[in-house]
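Issue 218. Parser rejects a valid record. Input:
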Amino acid sequence: MGITKTDLFTSEQNELAQLAKAFAHPARIAILQYLAKSKSCINGTLVQELGLAQATISQHLRELKELGLIKGSIEGVSINYCLNEEKWEEVRGYFNGLFDQLTQSCSSGECC
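Output the parser choked on:
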């Protein structure tokens, strides 16, 4: 696979692409849905809930955390994760802006 020339795109386009990539795996979607439902969670709970290996869960949590979609706090030997509400407002803005732009373009009747 070729190298992406991210410098050709705006920071918002690059950010949106990274966020879309995070949503491209069903395990990460399941993790986000579980965190949204439970308001917070201990890593071990995810292993039981999703039936995936601890290492797999940890990898997905790391990717979500690197993007700022989730945050975690250490409590003894466990890490308690939750959604990062501030980041989710930013994410909502990015995707709503894209969808609004696409909707306006197609509703003008100028699509092929």
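Fixed in the parser; the record now loads. Residues 38 and 82 are 9 Å apart (CA to CA).
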